[in-house]
Design a protein that fits this description.
Blueprint: H1 2-20, H2 24-34, H3 38-57, H4 63-89, H5 93-120, H6 130-140, H7 144-169, H8 175-197
C-alpha cells in the first residue's frame, strides 16, 4: 500500500513539473504564432510603402498632370538645344533669330514647369530621352541649307504636337496646369506660325 501511495505521489510530481517547465521549443512556437506570418508582414510593409509614396508625391496629382509635366519638360529641353544649334548653324538671320527666341522663351517655360513640378513633388527629366537625343544628333549632322530645312521641319512637328497637348491642358482639372497651359499656349502657337512662315 505504501508503495502505491509513493508511486501516485511521484506521478503527480512529474505531472506538475511538466506543466511548469514547458519545453523551449513550444514557447518559441507560441511566440511565433503571435506574430504575423512572413507573407502578412511583407504585405503590411508593402501597403505602408505604397501609402508613404502617395503621401510624398501627393495622391491628388493625377496621371495626366504627371505625364504632361514630364513630357513638356523634355520637349522644352529639346527645343532649347535645337534653338542653340540654330543660332550657330542656320544660314539665314531669320532662322538664327528664331533660334534665339527658342532659347529665351523655352527657358522661361521650362522654369515655370520646374516650379509646378517641385510644388507637386514630381521629378522632371534632367536630360533628353533616347528618341529625342537621337533626333538632336541627326540635326547636328547636317549643315548649310540642309540644316535649315531639317530644323524647320522638326520645329513644325514639335510645335504642332505641343499645341495639341497645351490645348488639352487648358481644360485640366488641375488649376496649376490650366493656368500654365493657358498662359503659354499663345507662345507655342506663335512659334508654330513663325516657323511656318520661314519655310
Amino acid at each position: 500500500m505504501k508503495n502505491l501511495i509513493i508511486l501516485i505521489n511521484i506521478i503527480i510530481i512529474i505531472g506538475m513539473a511538466s506543466i511548469f517547465t514547458q519545453p523551449e521549443s513550444l514557447k518559441t512556437e507560441e511566440t511565433k504564432s503571435d506574430e504575423p506570418s512572413g507573407d502578412l508582414k511583407h504585405s503590411v510593409r508593402s501597403d505602408f510603402a505604397v501609402q508613404s509614396r502617395h503621401s510624398e508625391t501627393g495622391s491628388s496629382v493625377d496621371e495626366f498632370v504627371t505625364d504632361f509635366l514630364i513630357e513638356m519638360a523634355e520637349a522644352r529641353l529639346m527645343d532649347l538645344e535645337e534653338g542653340k544649334i540654330a543660332q550657330q548653324r542656320s544660314t539665314t538671320k531669320e532662322l538664327k533669330a528664331y533660334g534665339t527666341l527658342m532659347v529665351k522663351e523655352q527657358s522661361e517655360m521650362l522654369e515655370a514647369l520646374k516650379k509646378i513640378a517641385a510644388d507637386k513633388g514630381i521629378l522632371l527629366p534632367a536630360q533628353l530621352g533616347p528618341d529625342k537625343a537621337d533626333g538632336l544628333r541627326d540635326l547636328r549632322e547636317v549643315h548649310g541649307k540642309s540644316f535649315d530645312k531639317k530644323f524647320i521641319k522638326m520645329m513644325i512637328i514639335d510645335h504642332k504636337r505641343d499645341a495639341k497637348k497645351f490645348e488639352l491642358a487648358t481644360r485640366s482639372n488641375d488649376a496649376d496646369i490650366q493656368v500654365f497651359a493657358t498662359r503659354y499656349l499663345p507662345y507655342v502657337q506663335s512659334h508654330l506660325e513663325r516657323i511656318k512662315s520661314l519655310k
